[in-house]
Amino acid sequence: MSDVDKARLDLCEELGFETVNMSDVNLVGYINDSPNGEGIDIVFACSDAEAAAIEMTQLARVGGTICMTGIHKAPRPVDLREINFQEQTLVGSRVTIKHAFEMSVALATTLADDLETVMTQTVPQSEAEGIFKMIANPSVSTVKVLVDCEA
Q1: How far apart are CA 129 and CA 123, in angstroms?
Q2: Which of the residues 4, 41, 64, 78 has the least number of beta carbons within 10 Å of its own beta carbon?
Q3: Helices (H), 34-77
Q4: How far is it, in rounded angstroms, from Cα 93 to Cα 91?
Q5: Model pTM score
Q6: Under a CB-based contact definition with an 8 Å cutoff, are residues 120 and 143 in contact?
Q7: 18: enclosing H helix or E strand
Q8: What is the Cα–Cα distance from 3 to 5, expressed in whole angstroms?
Q9: pLDDT tens digit sequence for 81-127
Q10: Can you list the domains of the chain with their CATH numbers?
Q11: CB atoms within 10 A of CB 46
Q12: For residue 69, which of 93, 90, 51 has the smallest C-alpha distance?
């Protein structure tokens, strides 16, 4: 898991993930220097940063999959040659079918205790407007914020 936020990286390490702080390490170089050096099977592109869009094709292995979970606020350059030459698959994630949603809810129910670990804040619906300010504040460690619609 790569990020620049120390709190997120620490939480992911606690959950057993290998982490890379992109403030300190070049992610593409890190992946290329790894023992297999062949790239990642599935890349979850969760950031809306331009650099992330450019690098995602360099991170996925030949035949790998890139799942776009980040919502970009502007068009981004993507190396389509890499997708073609590396026979990569690019998958969007914004719209879901009812069956996939039902499977996600069932999985979330099964993993409820683990998912609770990543919920760093809960706010009542009446304060939901302030969530973006909370996330942007570096003194507040946010990973996932839950909006309580019943509070």
Answers
A1: 10
A2: 41
A3: 50-59
A4: 7
A5: 0.78
A6: yes
A7: none
A8: 6
A9: 999 999 999 998 876 788 888 888 899 899 988 888 888 899 999 99
A10: 2-92 (3.40.50.720), 98-148 (no CATH)
A11: 16
A12: 93
